[in-house]
């Protein structure tokens, strides 16, 4: 009986064979955590360099295990330890004392079978470098043996968490088969070999799934396929379904997946760069949060229409907490940056708790927009010239500077699964402090009242008379002339000064290497001060060419760099002459041929500074009638009251 109990417990020992430096802190850490959560003893080698007794430790663990997971990855063949372990695994599988589940992690199985591609090159280079020619024959035999087995394949755009769920399901199924067949003469018999025998066929095809799901690698799928089950019917079809029974139900529209738990009153919105962390880190984070009964809102698509954007922003408004995951390519995504602007807006209104997460990026690089993170932002800006650049910079600096943040450094020796656990604990603690009453305001920076400028290309209403006014302004600015022109645009509030300036920006920014639409100066000077405005203006103008621009940097101190090319600048909603003088200085840094547009309500602010001032005319009778005709209810009201 004691022997049987020992054998039964050994069923739960799973050895994981993998290339340590590549996977240990990420995928393998999450896999180990999932296996342990399901009651398995996962043996993971923690040492890259072994000496003394450590040399024999992995082989001892293999002998104590009943299942081996061999994870082939791009750099797998660079490790003698991985290959030696593989030889040992093969021996025990052939003895009938071990069941093997091969896993191909973002690697084509054919490259392993035929020793081709990057995998094959790394093996040959490794042997040449180490001169381990005596081991090469056994390594090749082991690789060929393993490649005959039916395997699980994670493709490049597959969801890692979903894939790990599939692996654990397969491990459970194998363990169940072992336990059902357990008897005193089981081990070393042909019965254990039967559990693994179905994976011995020579694979002739790779079945790659549609839509980024993981795939199976096998010669065939049949009802008798003991290893895979009923033609992969047990495979988890997608991340949403994997949550349905245990943790709640996932709902989604065209772009947003809402992972809801049945008891969770709170929502957490996650802002992240899909290609960086969407299929890996965020996938694991979502699962961990839902497991703790936290409802999660995730944007699943970066290609969306205007209605989708409105719906997404409404979801952000409904959330209680926003997790902003800054990663390497975050600043190359318009969607991420626009979401961040909305998140900051809700935070400033006191409606949203924001927790920045720095995933293998330096916090200072996000705050100061330098390093690789800043470089990618400025390159992205030069390519697309999005008018929201100032809002992006403002939001990045603001959110990255929050004190309540979490960070995983690229050089930090910490398991990613542990980092996910710390985030979940942090979120749970934050949610516990948020009352459920409607209208509760979080203690964050208060929102300063001020007019928000709506960009002209998001405005669905027709703009009557705009073409004529733009042409008049273009003539005054003399874009075809190589002379510097500083032109003011003045008029009463709401008459269209900002719209005209932004129309000009859209038409002419492509003609200038350096351009900046600095909108809402009145509001931003109240919130941040003139020094911040000038620093931001110079940062965007130079686009990261000078990495150390700070509060002490002035136009004159970097005059040499600024004079290298013409500039096109919009200074919008100026309310004080000092604002213009502080931002533009003595004008000596402005290269000949530059164009500067300044909008202001008060024409007198522009006297002595602008070469010319354009007074925006009111709508004439025909234009006014066209506008009113667009709003028939307004026309009807005016006629009934005798005002028209």
CATH class descriptor name of the largest domain: Alpha Beta
Largest sheet: 7 strands, mixed
Strand content: 15-25%
Task: Provide the structure class.
Answer: alpha/beta
Quickly count the domains.
3
| Shape-level CATH architecture of the largest domain | 3-Layer(aba) Sandwich
Number of strands: 19
| Count of DSSP-assigned helices | 27
| Mean pLDDT, all residues | 78
CATH superfamily of the largest domain: Toll/interleukin-1 receptor homology (TIR) domain
Enumerate the strands of the largest sheet in spatial order, edge to edge or round the barrel: 2-1-3-4-5-7-6
Features:
45% helix; Rossmann fold; 3 domains; 644 residues; disordered N terminus; alpha/beta; 7-stranded mixed β-sheet; elongated
């Amino acid at each position: 009986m004691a022997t049987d109990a020992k054998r039964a417990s050994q069923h739960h020992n799973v050895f994981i064979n993998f290339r340590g430096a590549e996977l240990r802190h990420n995928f393998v850490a999450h896999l180990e955590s999932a296996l342990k959560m399901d009651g398995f003893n996962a043996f993971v080698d923690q040492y890259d360099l072994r000496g003394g007794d450590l040399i024999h430790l992995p082989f001892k663990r293999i002998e104590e295990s009943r299942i081996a997971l061999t994870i082939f990855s791009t750099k797998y063949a660079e490790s003698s330890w991985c290959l030696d372990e593989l030889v040992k695994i093969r021996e025990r599988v052939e003895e009938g004392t071990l069941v093997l589940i091969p896993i191909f992690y973002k690697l084509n199985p054919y490259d392993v079978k035929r020793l081709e591609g990057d995998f094959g090159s790394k093996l040959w280079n490794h042997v040449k470098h180490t001169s381990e020619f005596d081991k090469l024959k056994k390594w090749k035999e082991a690789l060929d043996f393993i490649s005959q087995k039916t395997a699980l394949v994670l493709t490049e755009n597959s969801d890692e968490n979903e894939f790990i769920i599939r692996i654990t399901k397969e491990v459970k199924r194998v363990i169940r088969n072992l336990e059902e067949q357990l008897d005193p003469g089981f081990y070393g018999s042909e019965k254990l070999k039967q559990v693994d025998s179905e994976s011995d066929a020579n694979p002739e095809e790779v079945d790659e799934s549609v839509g980024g799901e993981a795939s199976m690698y096998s010669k065939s799928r049949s009802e008798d396929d003991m290893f895979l089950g009923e033609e992969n019917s047990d495979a988890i079809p997608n991340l949403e379904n994997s949550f349905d029974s245990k943790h709640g139900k996932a709902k989604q529209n065209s772009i947003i997946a809402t992972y809801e738990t049945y008891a969770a009153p709170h929502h957490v919105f996650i802002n992240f760069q899909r290609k960086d962390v969407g299929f890996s880190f965020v996938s694991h984070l979502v699962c961990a949060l839902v497991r703790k009964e936290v409802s999660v809102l995730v944007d699943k698509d970066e290609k969306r229409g205007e209605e989708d954007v409105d719906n997404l922003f409404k979801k952000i408004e409904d959330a209680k907490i926003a997790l902003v995951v800054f990663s390497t390519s975050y600043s190359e995504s318009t969607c991420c940056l626009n979401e961040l602007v909305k998140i900051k807006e809700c935070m400033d209104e006191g409606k949203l708790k924001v927790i920045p997460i720095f995933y293998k990026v330096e916090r200072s690089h996000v705050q100061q927009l330098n390093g690789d993170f800043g470089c990618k932002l400025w390159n992205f800006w030069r390519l697309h010239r999005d008018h929201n650049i100032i809002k992006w910079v403002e939001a990045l600096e603001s959110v990255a500077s929050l004190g309540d943040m979490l960070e995983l450094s690229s050089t930090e020796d910490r398991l990613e699964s542990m980092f996910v656990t710390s985030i979940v604990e942090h979120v749970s603690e934050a949610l516990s402090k948020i009352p459920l009453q409607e209208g509760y305001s979080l203690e964050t920076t208060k929102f300063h009242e001020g007019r928000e400028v709506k960009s002209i290309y998001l405005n669905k209403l027709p703009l009557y008379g705009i073409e004529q006014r733009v042409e008049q302004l273009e003539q005054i600015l003399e874009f075809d002339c190589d002379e510097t022109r500083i032109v003011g645009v003045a008029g009463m509030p709401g008459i269209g000064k900002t719209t005209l300036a932004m129309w000009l920006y859209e038409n002419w920014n492509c003609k200038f290497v350096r351009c900046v639409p600095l909108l809402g100066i009145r509001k931003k000077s109240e919130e941040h001060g003139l020094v911040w405005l000038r620093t931001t203006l110079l940062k965007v103008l130079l686009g990261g060419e000078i990495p150390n621009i700070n509060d002490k940097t002035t136009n004159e101190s970097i005059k040499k760099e600024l004079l290298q090319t013409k500039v096109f600048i919009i200074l919008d909603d100026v309310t004080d002459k000092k604002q213009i003088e502080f931002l533009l200085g003595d004008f000596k840094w402005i290269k000949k041929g530059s164009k500067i547009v300044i909008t202001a309500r008060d024409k007198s602010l522009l006297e002595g500074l602008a070469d010319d001032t354009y007074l925006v005319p009111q709508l004439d009778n025909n234009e006014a009638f066209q506008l009113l005709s667009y709003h028939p209810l307004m026309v009807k009201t005016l006629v009934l009251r005798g005002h028209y």
